[in-house]
Amino acid sequence: xxxxxxxxxxxxxxxxxxxxxxxxxxxxxxxxxxxxxxxxxxxxxxxxxxxxxxxxxxxxxxxxxxxxxxxxxxxxxxxxxxxxxxxxxxxxxxxxxxxxxxxxxxxxxxxxxxxxxxxxxxxxxxxx
Length: 128
Description:
Elements: E1 3-7, E2 10-13, E3 18-25, E4 32-39, E5 46-51, E6 58-60, E7 68-73, E8 78-83, E9 92-100, E10 117-118, E11 122-127
């Protein structure tokens, strides 16, 4: 079974950058479409970014478009989220997620229900 470990979070000042990592084990990440979601206190988990199996397509939430970049390195079995120009509204726990290529559900990269596996989350706190 695929396991995901999120890392790279921290407490930073507004305007700075962070790079989150998601390391996979128990399977080849090349068999999975990947996504990043986040959940702020008192709010539902929301879509941030997604990347398909071969990195031909990426998707972003409007709130992070132009500031965040999702990438994958199948050789390292990892996915990354490069975040720049961070602001306090980006404060949340960030989770990576994976969806197997054999899944029978409709693939909607922006939907939580698309994904089969989740990381434990990594806290990002941005102060003004």
